[in-house]
Design goal:
Layout lengths: L3 E7 L3 H12 L5 E4 L15 E2 L6 H13 L3 H5 L5 E2 L3 E5 L2 H17 L4 E3 L1 H7 L10 E5 L3 E3 L1 H14 L3 E3 L4 E6 L5 E5 L2 E10 L5 H6 L8 E10 L3 H4 L7 E4 L4 E6 L2 E6 L29 H14 L8 E11 L6 E4 L6 E5 L4 H18 L20 H13 L23 H6 L2 E6 L2 E7 L16 H13 L1 E5 L4 E6 L3 H8 L11 E7 L5 E11 L2 E6 L4 H11 L5 E4 L4 E7 L3 H5 L17 E6 L2 E6 L8 E7 L3 H12 L4 E3 L2 H10 L34 H10 L4 E7 L11 E4 L2 E12 L4 E8 L7 E5 L2 E7 L15
Parallel strand pairs: 1-2, 1-12, 2-9, 5-14, 12-19, 22-32
Antiparallel strand pairs: 3-8, 4-8, 5-7, 6-7, 10-11, 11-12, 13-16, 13-17, 14-15, 15-16, 18-19, 20-21, 22-28, 23-26, 23-27, 24-25, 25-26, 28-31, 29-30, 30-31, 33-36, 33-38, 34-35, 34-37, 35-36, 37-38
Helix pairs in contact: 1-6, 1-10, 2-4, 2-10, 13-18
Length: 803
């Protein structure tokens, strides 16, 4: 066995083989994949092999679509059959809300490239003559997908990787990993040691155990999943056309044709089982091609519904039951990207739909590893989206819920309450008693909106029962004053003699030059892509306070620790400091009597910060907010947060102070045309494309991403961010909707909301730079006029913030 390699991949299932193939395709052929058994012998070999195009997450749909375009070509590329069955798929809808979801997904399918139609029950019967369509309102028909033989596809990817120079070693268990002082990894195996620059955890059901070798807690739970294959059916024997794969929420699963037999898979809503529960959820190292005893009683309620829907299955005998382990993450998305705190240790695991995702996951992770960026937004799969709060107990609770809800419709506002609360501030119980409805952001419980006792949200894509509640919160902020707990923001102190130089070389904007100055700036990759958005306050010559969004905490810390020298100290204050935002035209009237500081414009200007005393409590007060109003962010020790909040509420009573939540924030920021990290600002996009060159300071000297940005300036951009108004009625944009000019798709919406203070439905979109007029946006299947705006619809001159 060779002793050195650029990359070592641990695990030879669909994810590991897919990555090895695409690394080699990108030019990294010095890759060694090590598998303890045979390729596919973990979860891959026993998977049902479904490959749906239809999935509710825009970027996950890109991953699926790439796989579905690759698998049919694998045999011609590699000479190895992949077992592709391009029969298409149909998902069934039994409620109007599900039909709207179909229309939403159909809207972004045009951007991604897969064909999707919302079809009638009659058309469903044409494609599947044996189905009973009682209660079915519509189907989502995707004709470019289907299913694949998992073992064949995985071996075809492995064959392709070998042909391009990669090495694959079977029957060789990795027994441990050591990180060397050089930053490389020494991988111990049964056949010897190998040292590598990049290490990849593609260990499937073993991924959490492999991560522990390097102190990384990989949040997965191995779940048992059952499907059964019937005896051959007479109805299929003479059929020349294979049935589409059917996905049916009523049966909590899928069913399809398997050769001349039927195949039925169930994701039970309750009573599910963790694989190897007696061993703490992990297999023995000697486990190989392992299945569990079938348990028909566990899936019987849903199996009966499947047979009611497909009566031809009812009289068929059961040929075999497959009950195997599949890893699930807390949110159902795979882990693709760097592990927090370790350079060049990559995760490629946690895929509960690993066959469908193996090709696309390999492609886009390989791009990230080789080039420093992927061409798609990787935020929803970045392993660093989970922090220490995602311990084994939390992960297990969330993963069970993800399994149970595999076929639930992900309507806006729907919350997964398993494992919650994980991270709370001292205000959690108090705000809950006041009617706060929370959402979880990086584990933190953050108020979404406030509702009266007995209120129930009717979840749907159209404006729902929260509409007037959010409108009232927005009016409070615009007309009086509002208060919100935003302690979930990541908060980091960067101090020391080298602090200014460090921040200057990794951010694109100038640093604040004066003590107390605040600057919004962006972290760019070497390719000029946007990696993060930071608000930096200069508290002293050698002391900077860095703020970034919830969920970006570990990414920011990774970069700072990697780039900092011995003359810089990085201190994570996210858990130590809470944060209240107080915003609105009466914010000064509320805070001035509580503070020892002069809050006038002359003494406390917009975009400046001071350390003050407020209600007898030490506070870092920053005159900045995301709502576009006069206001302050008040950062205080977490232990003092409740006392500060109570004092502000009391002082604000005569000024009409009101609590507000995240839905109101989204409405307010859309009126101000403020971009959102993760929506408008992503690793796919540069500052030039994001129309954010005001945050780019090329005259300040060298900084990360400058050369690539200048090269793009000379070349010209292929897409640009625009802001506009939608001629909407009862529904607004969410993101992913196609932008049309005539019948040509010219762009994609990134986010939207109704502006309650202006009465306008607003959206951001990336479009072809040449497309400027007669634009339309497709919302729930309807084309709506999309009129571009050259300025925010609310206070375009920032006079209210400067008031």
């Amino acid at each position: 066995m060779q002793t050195h390699a650029k990359v070592v991949i641990i695990g030879g299932g669909m994810m590991g083989a897919g990555l090895a193939y695409h690394l080699a395709e990108e030019g990294w052929s010095d890759t060694v994949l090590i598998e303890k058994g045979e390729l596919t012998s973990g979860s891959t070999w026993h998977a049902a092999g479904q490959c749906p195009s239809f999935i509710g997450n825009y970027n996950m749909a890109k991953i699926h679509h790439y796989s579905n375009m690759l698998y049919p070509r694998l045999e011609s590329i590699t000479g190895q059959p992949a077992g592709w069955h391009g029969c298409g798929g149909i998902r069934l809808a039994t409620t109007p809300e599900e039909v709207d979801w179909f229309r939403h997904v159909a809207g972004f399918s045009a951007n991604i490239g897969f064909h999707m139609e919302v079809i009638s029950p009659a058309r469903i019967r044409e494609l599947n003559p044996w189905i009973k369509t009682d209660g079915i309102l519509a189907g989502a028909w995707t004709n470019l997908d289907g299913h694949v033989d998992p073992s064949s596809a995985c071996n075809a990817l492995a064959a392709g990787a070998r042909q391009m120079g990669a090495t694959i070693i079977r029957r060789n268990r990795v027994t441990g990993v050591t990180r060397l002082p050089s930053g490389e990894y020494r991988v111990a195996t049964e056949q010897g040691e190998i040292t590598c620059e990049h290490l990849v955890n593609a260990a499937g059901c073993y991924a959490r155990e492999v991560g522990k070798w390097l102190g990384v807690d990989t949040p997965i739970t191995n779940m048992q999943h059952q499907y059964l294959v019937t005896e051959p059916l007479e109805e299929f024997k003479d059929s020349e056309v294979e049935l589409p794969v059917m996905r049916d929420p009523a049966t909590a699963g899928y069913y399809r044709q398997e050769q001349k037999a039927g195949l039925i898979g169930i994701y039970e809503h309750f009573g599910s089982q963790e694989a190897w529960a007696a061993r703490g959820g992990y297999p023995d190292w000697n486990s190989e091609n392992e299945l569990f005893e079938g348990d028909l009683d566990r899936i019987a309620p849903w199996l009966e519904k499947a047979m009611e829907r497909m009566p031809i299955f009812a009289n068929a005998g059961i040929k075999r039951i497959i009950n195997g382990a599949i890893p699930h993450t807390p949110d159902g998305n795979p882990l693709l990207g760097p592990a927090a705190g370790l350079r060049n240790f990559w995760q490629c695991c946690g895929a509960s739909i690993g066959i469908a995702q193996g090709g696309g996951a390999g492609k886009y992770l390989a791009q990230w590893m080789v080039h420093g960026d992927s061409e798609i937004n990787m935020a929803s799969v970045d392993p660093r989206r989970f922090g220490a709060y995602a311990d084994q107990s939390y992960t297990r609770a969330k993963s069970f819920a993800d399994y149970h809800e595999m076929f639930e419709t992900p309507l806006p506002g729907r919350e997964n309450n398993a494992g919650r609360p994980a991270r709370v501030t001292p205000l959690y119980a108090l705000l809950k008693a006041k009617g706060a409805v929370f959402t979880a952001v990086d584990g933190w419980e953050r108020p979404k909106y406030f509702a009266p006792e007995g209120f129930a949200e009717n979840l749907q894509y159209r404006r729902n029962t929260t509409f007037e509640l959010v409108a009232a919160e927005c009016r409070a902020v615009r007309e009086r004053v509002g208060i919100m707990d935003l302690s979930s923001f990541a908060k980091i102190d960067v101090t020391g003699a080298g602090a200014a130089a460090l921040l200057d070389r990794i951010t694109a904007n100038r640093l604040p030059s004066r003590q107390g100055g605040i600057k919004l700036t962006h972290v760019l990759s070497e390719n000029g892509r946007i990696e993060g958005e930071w608000t930096i306050t200069r508290l002293a010559d050698d002391h900077f306070y860095v703020l970034t969004g919830a969920g970006a905490e570990r990414q920011a810390l990774d970069l700072l620790h990697r780039e900092a020298g011995a003359d810089v100290t990085i201190t994570n204050l996210t858990e130590a400091l809470g944060m209240l935002v107080v915003a609105g035209p009466r914010a000064r009237d509320v805070l001035a009597p509580l503070s020892d500081a002069d809050l006038s414009n002359a003494r406390f200007r917009w975009l400046s910060g001071q350390e003050i005393i407020c209600a007898g409590i030490p506070v870092r007060a920053l005159r900045v907010n995301y709502m576009g109003e006069l206001g302050w962010e008040l950062h205080t020790p977490m232990a003092e947060l409740a006392r500060l909040y109570t004092a502000i509420i009391a002082a604000g009573a005569t000024h009409g102070i009101a609590d507000f939540g995240g839905l109101a924030v989204n409405s307010l920021r859309m009126e101000k045309a403020y971009c959102s990290m993760g929506s408008e600002l992503t690793n796919e996009i540069t500052l030039l494309e994001a129309a954010s060159t005001r945050f780019y300071a090329p005259d300040k000297g060298e900084f990360r991403g400058r050369a690539a940005t200048e090269a793009l300036q000379a070349k010209g951009i292929a897409t640009r961010l625009v802001y506009g108004e939608i001629a909407a009625s009862d529904c607004d944009a969410y993101g992913g909707e196609a932008i049309l000019q005539g019948d040509r798709v010219v762009g994609v919406c990134t986010s939207g909301a109704y502006g309650h203070a202006t009465g306008k439905s607003l959206a951001f979109a990336y479009i072809d730079p040449a497309a400027t007029q007669k634009l339309e946006i497709v919302i729930l299947g309807e084309r709506r006029a999309f009129t571009l705006l050259d300025r925010p619809v609310w206070d375009s001159g920032n006079q209210r913030q400067k008031a």
